[in-house]
Each structure stands twice: as structure tokens, then as C-alpha cells.
Amino acid sequence: MFKTIIMAVDGSPAVERLLVYTEHMARRSDAQVIIVHAYETPVVYDWTDGFRQLAEGYERVAAEVAADAVDALAKAGIQAIADVREGPAAEAILQAVSVHEADLIVMGSRASKSDSVAESLLGSVSSAVVRRTYCPTLLVP
Q: What is the Cα–Cα distance from 83 to 114, expressed in whole angstroms?
């Protein structure tokens, strides 16, 4: 049914629930899983060595978050690779869906403080992805 599943992770404890659903869907479909994690570095006008180190730290932590999910799925016998992207999370997920020609997104739904009812119920990232994707999306609470 599915060939490529995007699992969007943010480094929160909710990743454990995402892993359960992603593993189940991937196993039933014999699908490949792409773990997507986005990070944003602060905008700073003075690129000092200290800031470069900070930016490299963001990238390193992002790679570790994605690698942990890849490892967890590998232990369950599911083929997965990491796709770490710099930029806003919703944009990164949507780009990954397009690049990898995904046919399912698995991501968390997170409540956030917002004026929008949709964003209050879904979270701003999940709301943005659902509104803009052609791909079926499984939101895990």
C-alpha cells in the first residue's frame, strides 16, 4: 500500500508513539521510512566563530535526533534513512515528501497556544503540513 513513509520527528518524547505507528505501517506495506528532522539556527548578523560553533551544534543535535529514530526502526527490522534539513519544520517536511515521493506522512499532533482553532487542536506544524500536502497524513497524539 505504501512505498515510502515520511516520519517527522522533533526530538520530543512523543517520538516513541510515532515509532509504534510508523513501524506498524512500514511492516504491513514493506515500505521504506525516511526520518525527517528540521532545525533552525538563529539569525545573527555577526558570523563569529562562536556562532559558527553554535550553528554546527544545532546541526549535530538534529542529526543525532534523526539517527536515534533510524536506529530504533532498524532494531525492529525496518529500513530507514535520515533526512536532516535546515529551515522551518513544515517546509522541511513538505520538501521531503516531494523529494522522496512519499505516500504517507506520520507525524505528531501537538497542541499549541494559537488564535486559530485548527492550530490549537493540531499544532502549527501539523496544521501547516495537512493544509498544504497532497499526501495522506497520520497524526499521532
A: 29
d(Cα 22, Cα 39) in Å, to the nearest integer?
22
Q: Which of 28, 30, 52, 26 is nearest to 41 (CA)?
A: 52
Measured between alpha carbons, how far is 87 from 65 in angstroms, rounded to an integer? 16
pTM over 0.90: no
C-alpha cell at 118: 485548527
Q: Is 53 helix (H, G, I), strand (E, B) or coil?
A: helix
Q: Which three cell numbers stand for residue 116?
A: 486559530
Which residue segment(s) compose the domain that 90 sits in?
A: 4-140
Q: What is the pLDDT of residues 35-75, one digit of tens each?
A: 999 999 877 666 666 677 777 888 999 999 999 999 999 99
- Number of structural domains the chain divides into: 1
CATH number at residue 44: 3.40.50.620
